[in-house]
Amino acid sequence: MSDPRITLVTGANQGVGLQLTKELVAHGHTVYLGSRDLARGEQAAAGIAEVENASGGSAIPIQLDVTEADSIAAAAARIRAEQGRLDLLVNNAGISKTVDRALGSPEYRAHSLASNASLDEIRAIWDVNVFGALAVYQAMLPLLRDGNDARIVMVSSGVGSLTTNADPSYAYHSIYGPGYAASKTAMNAMALTIMIELENTDIKVNIVSPAFTATALNGFAGTESIEDGSREVVRVALLGPDGPSGTFTQWENTPIPW
Description:
Blueprint: E1 6-9, H1 15-26, E2 30-35, H2 38-46, H3 49-55, E3 58-63, H4 69-82, E4 88-91, H5 106-110, H6 119-145, E5 151-155, H7 162-165, H8 180-198, E6 204-208, H9 226-229, H10 231-237, E7 248-250, E8 254-255
Parallel strand pairs: 1-2, 1-4, 2-3, 4-5, 5-6, 6-7
Antiparallel strand pairs: 7-8
Helix pairs in contact: 4-6, 6-8
């Protein structure tokens, strides 16, 4: 029997990250369930116990704040000490705002244009979605180099596509803003730099957009269930050694223009 795949999912105590963790555990992965708040991560992991018993996989809560260098370093050191490698990294942690306001509301639009968006809020969003993802990659790369069929999955969004947003006929053209949407554009750029760095190695890199899923990220305004909305993330995370690298897709394996 082959060793289980060793996986780290950031932002995994809720939403798409938690659903992905459940499904990877069901496929026998040993998943480090990254959570900024360890207590919430422990609670989420406890809820996966039944799946663990059936599959042989496991969910291991780990404290991981992607904006804190010491937290990232400690997580990498723990995975190194306990497993000696990492086979799959899923950069999923993300935020859309720092102030509670309903998606699409007048208040949301009043604080989301280039002319009026809070620079402090933009910095906070980018710190998680862009710089946090890059910092985790940098810390986990040595573990991935020692991994088996190593793969990196960047959980981005179709709202980060410059090509579609530049088209005036695109449904969301008028609400492309410097906060969440532009942070996903920047995340895609970071992913491209990673793809280029690793293109002559055995480590594969893919970008994935979940569907418009009802999660805390959008105030549960999404139209898809967490199970359906996470399907493309799960599919790509489970790609085997013959699976592609360098893709940016949504369900089901539909390319998204950069």
